[in-house]
Amino acid sequence: MKHLAEYRDAHTARRLAAEIRRIVTRPWAIMEVCGGQTHSIIRNGVDQLLPPEVELIHGPGCPVCVTPLETIDRALAVAAKPGVIFCSFGDMLRVPGSRENLFSIKGRGADVRVVYSPLDAVKLAKEHPDREVVFLAIGFETTAPANAMAVKLAKQQGLENFSMLVSHVLVPPAIEAIMRSPGNRVNAFLAAGHVCSVMGTWQYPTLAERFSVPIVVTGFEPLDLLEGIRRTVLQLEEGRHEVENAYERVVSERGNEPAQAVIAEVFTSMDRAWRGIGVIPSSGWRLSDAYHDFDAEIRFDVGDVTATESPLCHSGEVLKGTLKPNQCPAFGKECTPRTPLGATMVSSEGACAAYFNAGRVGSS
Q1: Minimal CB count within 10 Å: which of 150, 169, 172, 272?
Q2: Are residues 20 and 45 in the same domain?
């Protein structure tokens, strides 16, 4: 707690907020890309410390939220099959599919298990050679190394009963898609520190230059975020568009190169659909040809499963930053954490859940 307290000091927070107020002269819209940052901003009232000229836009940085509806339905189809042990992190169990979720089919008898690591699923496959063990692998670059290592180990150990349903998404293509989208009003980005801890910052200078946007890598504590915002506003006011690392205690330029190597071995890039947003070119990973046999989508023939979003759910607009969660007509009415229409309300990193839990009901 001592070290956490260093990044939550109220006096320093007020000083940083005052410095931001001193340097800002015009309106700026800054998007934080990470759902964890969104929750920290709302929970700690970071946005309420800022001057009215600085608006924080909540981007598509929650991996659960951007997992396509058809991927959830494919997961449900696989999990319901006889002889399958379906493994997932706990935050996926209540994410709504078209008609139900993993929690509800578990209640009907499907063998759905919460694991804390994909390696737990590999262990289950070894312990249950007569069962098919499937792991639902979602997330940004942060979770990819462990998922890649799980598949690699399963192959090394000859575990033919292990497979993975993959829905990985990547941050840089998402930033490019946001900047190219009609009506975009993002002036700068706060990049996700945990993603950059794996991938480094080397991918971002090209984006900053191409779209003339500052990109500042930051962490998740209030002072991390305020310092990131201060650096971003300073760049905007000075007419600069550079990549800055405000999270040097964790992030380096090159990132974790051994982790990147195992990702490159096991995964290959693909066009990926993002829930509520659509297909973004080269924005995802799938298993490479060398690990083709471990692809659950192919093994269980669920690739043709399609789905349609609820017309009441505006999560796509929330994820693109064109709508605040509490501006959605269904927010807090038809859509609550108990009756979620979309993943942004049920995910632990979803913007809608953050607003609901913080009592941000008004649309102002």
Answers
A1: 172
A2: yes
Nearest to 322 by CA among 183, 192, 172, 191: 183
Residue ranges making up the domain that contains 321? 315-357
Say if residue 165 is in the same domain as residue 259. Answer: yes
SS3 per-residue string spanning 241-292 = CCEEECCCCCCCCCCCHHHHHHHHHHEEEEEEEECCCEEEEEEEEEECHHHH
Other beta carbons within 10 angstroms of residue 37's beta carbon come to: 28
pLDDT at 1: 39
Q: Residue 71: is it exposed, middle or buried by C-beta count within 10 angstroms (0-12/13-18/19+)?
A: buried
Residues with Cβ within 8 Å of 314's Cβ and at least 6 positions away in sequence, in order, are 323, 328, 329, 330
Task: Give yes or no: residues 189 and 320 share one domain.
Answer: no
Q: At what angle do helices 222-238 and 35-44 cross, to 10 degrees?
A: 100
Q: Are residues 294 and 334 in the same domain?
A: no
CA distances from 250 to 89, 116, 217, 353 (A): 24, 23, 10, 27
309-315 — which CB contacts under 8 Å span 24+ positions?
309/69, 309/275, 309/276, 309/342, 310/341, 310/342, 312/341, 313/276, 313/341, 313/342, 315/65, 315/275, 315/276, 315/341, 315/342, 315/343, 315/344, 315/345, 315/352
Residue 62 CB neighbours (<10 A): 32
Whether the per-residue pLDDT at 313 is higher than 90: the answer is no
Are 276 and 327 in a shared domain? no
Domain count across the chain: 3
Q: 154: exposed, middle or buried (C-beta count within 10 Å: 0-12, 13-18, 19+)? A: buried
Q: Using 50, 70 and 90 to split pLDDT, how confident is the model at 346?
A: confident
Separation CA 295–CA 142 (nearest Å): 20
**Residue 202 sits in the same domain as residue 344:** no
Answer yes or no: is 34 within a domain: yes
> What's the CA gap between 178 and 184, in Å, rounded?
7
Q: 28 has which bridge partners?
A: 54
Tokens of 186: 């993002």
Confidence of residue 248 (pLDDT cuts 50, 70, 90): very high
CA–CA dist 266, 285 (Å, integer): 9
Q: Looking at the structure, do residues 265 and 241 belong to the same domain, yes or no?
A: no
Tell me if 305 is assigned to some domain: no
